[in-house]
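Peroxidase: structure, please.
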Amino acid sequence: MAATKTTSTTLLPFFFFFFFFFLNLSESRLTLDYYKQTCPQFEQIVQQTVTSKQIQSPTTAAATLRLFLHDCLLPNGCDASVLLSSTPFNKAERDNDINLSLPGDAFDLIVRIKTALEFSCPNTVSCSDILSTATRDLLIMLGGPHYNVYLGRRDGRTSASPSVNGHLPKPSMPMSQIIEIFTKRGFTVEEMVALSGAHTVGFSHCSEFSSEIYNNSSSPSSPSSYNPRFAEALRNACRDYQKNPTLSIFNDVMTPNKFDNVYFQNLPKGLGVLKSDHGLFSDPLTKPFVETFAADEDKFFKVFASSMQKLSLLGVKTGRRGEIRRRCDQIN
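Here you go.
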């Protein structure tokens, strides 16, 4: 009888261990229908809000895609930390120099969706799930590929400006450094080039490429990587950028409002806007993928869709590792 009691006592911790193990496992599992019971209107509210916002402000899709990339590429992953505002005691990610140009339309969209969802199902949907789903829906609106967004993320509780440094690609970086940023996050060179195809929509400020189209004395120059006539057009369009820093150029000057593979077709013609665009075609590691995607839009869409899904799952927080923020710009 004593032996039985000892055995039961010994096994008790194991039962607790497995109970909490499976409890944690169930909390951490992302699913396609995560809000089916708790917020059945989730997909409809997101879709209606992004449609209305995109019609009202056609730059919203590209802005939201950029916001998503700047959130998920950081070491803390897709946790909507880029949405958090700075406090008197902390400078947040969104106030890092590289994020100061993130367009307001994207932040406004997330606020609109979150507000609508809080009315329908309070304290239920995370800001990180909103950002991931809105990005996918907007890409589809522009003609991009569909991919599944798995849901059940929690929002991060921290956001620090220094954590951004060195983890996001800049147009001025050599291609080897940009490749390294993505490979450290588990992406292949092919996937990195596909994600760069996001430049098929959106725009870049003149200040981001002015050094490439003007020399130090500010007299015209046409770098060999630019089509000469295109370089001249860029100089004319950006003539007053120092007085007006909002001046910008579409990244894809041929089909700027359509998600397609024309961006890749532009690069061999010298119609890339940024230094990094030209780098994709001149670097021997990335050039073959540029040529493949330029010739085969279906291939580009397939790799882009799988890469976006992969990106959306980086470093996600689930269960008690995060929270459902009541407001996307501040922790609870």
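Notes: The chain is about 45% helix and 0% strand.
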